[in-house]
Design goal:
- This protein is α+β, with helices and mostly antiparallel strands and 156 residues long.
- The protein has helices at 9-41, 53-83, 129-134, and strands at residues 97-100, 103-108, 111-116, 119-125, 142-145, 148-155.
- The chain has one domain.
- 45% of the residues lie in helices and 22% in strands.
- A 6-stranded mixed beta sheet has the order 3-4-2-1-6-5.
- Helix 1 (9-41) packs antiparallel against helix 2.
- The mean pLDDT is 85.
Length: 156
């Protein structure tokens, strides 16, 4: 895997676009699953019910609600990602891309891993403990997190 030592403005925009695409894909999957669960919960009014149909319909309805709540959370995350300022920066804050210990992150919205230009990134939420440890820091600054010392190798 390629390890960027720096990231220019165009590279940072590619990271933003990959982050948005990742969030859109997750939202589409949840929306599709919610629709499938809603369809499973509907009973054909003309069909003769079989044993177990009612409980399966109730279970499918419960799952639909879970998927709808997850989709709503994904929509909020997607909106938050789109709202991040991805202009180049020298200080850690929302919209910064940071690297330490060989790992890479986008600051501002929590997310699982996504790839861009052969590099894996994760999202760090602004409310997370690691964010509190790195906010305002610059390349070369050190911070402690969970009893370990780390050095910021990338801030852009």
């Amino acid at each position: 895997m390629t390890q960027p030592t720096g990231l220019d403005a165009d590279g940072k925009l590619r990271v933003r676009d990959a982050f948005i695409a990742h969030a859109e894909s997750a939202l589409a999957a949840l929306t599709s699953q919610s629709t499938a669960e809603r369809d499973a919960a509907r009973q054909d009014r003309d069909a003769v019910p079989e044993a177990g149909d009612s409980s399966q319909t109730l279970e499918a309805g419960d799952l639909e609600g879970l998927f709808q709540r997850s989709a709503a959370h994904s929509r909020e995350s997607l909106d938050a990602i789109r709202a991040l300022d991805f202009t180049p920066t020298t200080e850690v804050g929302p919209g910064a891309v940071v690297g330490f210990d060989g790992d890479h992150y986008v600051v501002g919205v929590s997310s699982d891993a996504f790839d861009c230009d052969g590099v894996s990134y994760e999202g760090i939420g602004a409310g997370s403990p690691v964010y509190a440890a790195i906010v305002g820091k610059r390349v070369g600054d050190t911070f402690s997190f969970r009893g370990q010392d780390h050095r910021l190798d990338l801030v852009t």
